[in-house]
Amino acid sequence: MKTRITELFGIQHPIIQGGMHYVGFAEMAAAVSNAGGLGIITGLTQRTPELLAKEIARCREMTDKPFGVNLTFLPALTQPDYPGYIKAIIEGGVKAVETAGNNPQKWMPILKENGIKVIHKCTSVRHSLKAEQIGCDAVSVDGFECGGHPGEDDIPNFILLPRAADELKIPFVASGGMADGRSLVAALAMGAEGMNMGTRFIATKEAPVHENVKKAIVAASELDTRLVMRPLRNTERVLKNAAVDRLLEKEKALGPKLQFQDIIEEVAGVYPKIMTDGDMEAGAWSCGMVVGLINDIPTCKELIDRIMKEADDIITKRLARFA
Ligand SMILES: Cc1cc2nc3c(=O)[nH]c(=O)nc-3n(C[C@H](O)[C@H](O)[C@H](O)COP(=O)(O)O)c2cc1C
């Protein structure tokens, strides 16, 4: 399947693995890229630019296919060493960057001068248009269903994707709630040129996370995610657990007085405990509503091949009946 996204990134299938904190290590990115998609290393999971350079080199040893790096621009008080991370990306010969969070405008000249394709993750049409205007090559349109940060507009992909298609000139992928061949065909029908998946890729054999995380995803239904940190305008969709219940109780009790300090125990530094140690009650971790569609733990190749086969069957058989 050729789309503007497969052409842009030089990949076989129009499927991207979104950056994921403490999941997007070299093993994850290489497995997705080897399966014909675009795997992405999560930049900030590496504590320093030097460690990111090593992670890129490790990924390069595991695949000769294109892969990317996610750079999440946080509203943090002490900013990570973004120039250092970008230097590691350039020197590592990486040609695709997924940006997310704040507007990446400041970093566009250096990325473009080095021939790097930039796909910016946006949760609204206005941010997507801004990304187009500042020179991004593509957008990942992330609907309300998504795991992680869905923004504050709450527009699901059935509305967001066709709205994006009506306004954007650059290609975009559908992100949030994508799991299988049905997702891909629906995304294409709404004007996207591929799809980005987060949660689905965690439940794969190669995902370098504790088995407990994979089991929790398979066990959960679409009713099991919650939105946290809305009072802080930093909304995150997470899987419900004891820590999330506690966090929501605090939100309820404190109302608009809630401050980040009040919930630090439930959200700060919890990813290694969950993803690496498998302590599933350690805190709030990002997870999409799509968990309701995830019932197995295939290899990335099995997953991507299955998606492409299912998409082909839907287009050539099921939908052909209606033509
Ligand atoms: C565990 C987890 C961690 C994530 N961490 C990041 C991150 O660090 N940076 C980022 O841009 N997106 C992050 N995301 C969002 C994903 O890249 C992707 O946009 C999202 O998962 C898509 O929705 P889906 O889970 O329904 O597929 C994360 C998602 C999950 C599930």
Give the number of helices: 14
| CA-atom Rg in angstroms | 19 Å
Q: What is the subunit arrangement here?
A: single chain
H/E series? HEHEHEHEHEHEHEHEHHEEHHHH
How much of the residues is beta strand, in percent? 5-15%
Alpha-beta content class: alpha/beta
Q: Give me the side-by-side strand order of the main sheet.
A: 1-8-7-6-5-4-3-2
| Shape category | globular
Fraction in helix: 25-40%
Distance between the termini: 20 Å
Ligand names:
flavin mononucleotide
Average pLDDT figure: 97
The total count of strands amounts to 10
The major β-sheet equals:
8 strands, parallel
Contiguous uncertain segments of 5+ residues: none
Short overview:
With 323 residues, the protein is of the alpha/beta class. It is built from 14 helices and ten strands. Helices cover 40% and strands 14% of the residues.
Features:
binds flavin mononucleotide, two-stranded antiparallel ribbon, about 40% helix, about 15% strand, alpha/beta, eight-stranded parallel β-sheet, about 325 residues
Describe it.
- Helix 2 (26-34) runs parallel beside helix 3 (49-62).
- The chain is α/β, with parallel strands linked by helices and 323 residues long.
- The model has no long low-confidence stretch (mean pLDDT 97).
- The chain contains 14 helices and 10 strands.
- The protein binds flavin mononucleotide.
- Flavin mononucleotide binds next to strand 3, strand 8 and helix 9.
- The site of flavin mononucleotide (FMN) has 29 residues, from strand 3, strand 8 and helix 9.
